[in-house]
Amino acid sequence: MALSNIANLFGRSPIKPIEKHMATAHEASADLIPFFDALIKGDLKEAEQIQLRISAAENRADDIKRDLRLHLPDSLFMPVSRSDLLELLHAQDEVANTAQDIAGLAVGRKMQIPESLQSLMTTFVESAVATSAQALRAINELDELLESGFAGREVTIAKRMTEELDELERKSDKLEVEIRASLFTIEKDLPPVDVMFLYRVIEWIGELADRAHSVGNRLQLLLAR
């Protein structure tokens, strides 16, 4: 009997809510692109509106997480370990949390992106969000993986997706080094406190890609069991 059929015997599958949670986490992450566009244009009012959307998505992700934790069956009644799914859920949740932290800090500081950093900042944010998007694509393979019993073509597809996730995360790492170096060259001309928080936001954007990469790592662990 297919693993998914076994799961259906014992109640609703947790996979769709897991996928919905990742989609919501990515929604928060993806809004960082228009958010930074607004910051770069100096449109703080627009940035504040987008920050509210990011917070709302993060709250929805929290609701899904809470519901999943309350209703996740014991491992005996699921095709995958309960603890593995909770670890995956935690990794996904960190994507939404980090996006919220970035937007909250930038709005709270009324952050301005120095002109010489603007193009690179846009590329950096897009790269981190692309990592989150790839994590979502990989997670959306979970139900097919269950149908296949974690074997065959679906496993090959999922492994290729996680490898692409590795490449995207490495690209974000390189961009982080590059934008830090660019900020270093101009920091003496900027207010020191602004510089400190710019470094903090750059660090957190890099962490966003790391968090999305962790989702792929958790998926790889599921495939390896």
Q: Which features would summarize this protein structure in a list?
A:
single chain, 225 residues, mainly alpha, 83% helix
How are the SSEs ordered, and which strands pair?
Layout: H1 3-9, H2 15-30, H3 32-41, H4 44-71, H5 82-108, H6 115-139, H7 142-147, H8 153-186, H9 192-224
Organism: Microbulbifer variabilis
InterPro entries: DUF47 (IPR002727), PhoU-like_sf (IPR038078), Put_Phosphate_transp_reg (IPR018445)
Coiled coil: 40-67
Number of strands: 0
User: Helical proportion?
Assistant: over 70%
Largest beta sheet, briefly?
none
What's the shape?
A: elongated
Indicate the low-confidence ranges by residue numbers: 1-11
Whole-number radius of gyration?
19 Å
Beta-strand percentage range? under 5%
